[in-house]
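re the bet — no i am not wrong, look at it urself. input seq straight from the record:
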Amino acid sequence: MSFRLLTTLILGPALLGLVGLVGLVGPAGHAHPLADEPEKPVRPVAGRADVTRVTGQYHDLILARRLDETRALVHDDLFFIDPTADIFPGELSKGLRGADDIIALQKTWGTTPWSWERSVEFVSGNHAVAYGVLKPDATRVMPFVNILRVEDGLITERIDYGDYAGFTRTLESGQAGAGLQDVADTGRAYVAAYAAVDLDAIGGLLAEDADFQDPTTDIFGTGSEALITGRDAIVGNLRTSLVGLQDFTLEVQDAFFTPSHAVFITELSWVHPQQQGSKLFLANIRAPLVIALRIEDGKVVSHRDFWKASEFAKHLG
């Protein structure tokens, strides 16, 4: 039995309407595209309270620069990647593994406490996602996204995206170089096509070997966070998923850019038919969504979604 058919039988056609947003259908068993990670078994989804507690403590300690104390909250084999750190020397943009080495790296970033004014913060499944303005000191202000994965009460994965060198400000002032402007233009066009469900435009902006993944769909417990590879597979998945979504909208609330990445803070919404007993009514779904795009030579080569899938999951029961 195909995975798509199994999903249809268990969860119904309405859930298939979210395939492109949540990555429910796609080839399973792929490793992280940015590092040589072993295949992960599907684990039970952590409780919301557990994820909130652990990640909240971790954030507090990171901002206070009490880095040694974070050791008790993270797995020995912690994986940390920041794709937007490709502007700096080192391997962080490709991924680092090992709690002690990661803590040692963070100690090189200074000991003065930081502040982080978060405007978006949510838990979905095993993941906690937060976005806001990070202030490492009195002179530096930067948009910043942090995603943490929790398993068995410990943080096993950390993903960051940030505009650490003020690239977005140069765009706003009209002083950006051609490369940065191209990333911003491509990213904006891609998200506009996504919002309009313009699959031809999406296909034209994707690289042939592009990949898509949404880790936050682990809340469904089906291994649905699998990587989807190839432009045709991504567009086909979106075609299957977005057709039939009623009153679908995608509103951009904020965005930032680096020479290789475009990150959008958005809110998606649609109307979902829901059965309760003999009655059918329409539920209005609204959920925050972070879209992170890696862009090379005017094409999207990697698309990551992180959304509050729990807002949809609660309507499936």
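see?? Confidence is low (pLDDT under 50) at residues 1-43. told u. also DSSP finds ten helices and twelve strands in the chain. so pay up
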